[in-house]
């Protein structure tokens, strides 16, 4: 049976992307190279040098930066900035965007969470990389807010990598969602999950219930609803929360369910970043037949006002997210 690599698949998909000229495939290839490097480093964690633990610094959100956060960020930044495919790179780990000199720039804007769930590295829990790709909109060589603060619907592509029992690359360019598993013997990502469709309804909910006391009453009532016995609607739902967004999302994408990170008394605007987490995952969810919402607004309709803007997030199976919206709106 003929095996399809990511690059082969992307070249086929590129024909469907308006204005694609080969740069898109080159950019995806750069992401794959970075993902392989990070996967190797993660697999060596604990034996391959001093790469576990925190650096002693904090990022723009006040979170402790892990050593592997730094490594992942610098790896992708080095590879993507030299690819000739992007004009700007933004990252959860950097306060300001990196602007590529015009003579080295391409037509895309690349946004990333280089290592989601990095605090779980020390205890050998799955982590991931999330990315989003936009096309430069402004005219001329200067990169402006018009390029950096685009609506979620303007994404050309989005995807993530799961570093777990196997390393998987999942992406969408607006024409379905496709998953590839890294074959260590070949060093290639091979198509293993073509045209992923998330079930319309699941039986899993993912949320940090340690924050219950900070939730609004409507959020508490929705979680209580999910726990109540009702065979007709498939309740009670099972609670599954890894604490690594990529891992929780990936499980629900394949099996169905809802992931929630609501606004609360401590984080009234939510805690997940639109450009680096909520936006790209919403793009994937919708292209797989799912739904993504703030609870009151479609995620992909949001036009961010700054690159580090946070939003509440309800994402996963369509009927489950719609149920959450009903509770929150009523």
What does this structure look like?
The chain is an alpha+beta fold. It folds into two domains: 6-193, Fructose-1,6-Bisphosphatase, subunit A, domain 1 (Fructose-1,6-Bisphosphatase, Chain A, domain 1), CATH 3.30.540.10; 204-329, D-Maltodextrin-Binding Protein, domain 2 (3-Layer(aba) Sandwich). Helix content is 29%, strand content 24%. It has eight helices and 17 strands. The protein has helices spanning 6-14, 23-43, 67-81, 145-148, 217-227, 245-255, 274-287, 318-329; strands spanning 54-58, 64-66, 86-91, 98-99, 108-116, 127-135, 157-163, 167-172, 178-183, 188-193, 204-206, 238-239, 258-261, 272-273, 291-293, 310-311, 313-316. The longest helix has 21 residues, at 23-43. It is globular, with a radius of gyration of 19 Å. The N and C termini lie far apart (53 Å). The mean pLDDT is 92.
Task: List descriptors.
alpha+beta; five-stranded mixed sheet; Fructose-1,6-Bisphosphatase, Chain A, domain 1; single chain; 330 residues; D-Maltodextrin-Binding Protein, domain 2
Question: How would you name the CATH homologous superfamily of the largest domain?
Answer: Fructose-1,6-Bisphosphatase, subunit A, domain 1
Tally of individual domains: 2
Corresponding CATH architecture of the largest domain? 2-Layer Sandwich
Beta-strand content estimate: 15-25%
Q: Tell me, what is the CATH class of the largest domain?
A: Alpha Beta
- Mean pLDDT level: 92
Q: What is the strand arrangement across the widest sheet? A: 4-3-5-6-7-8-9-10
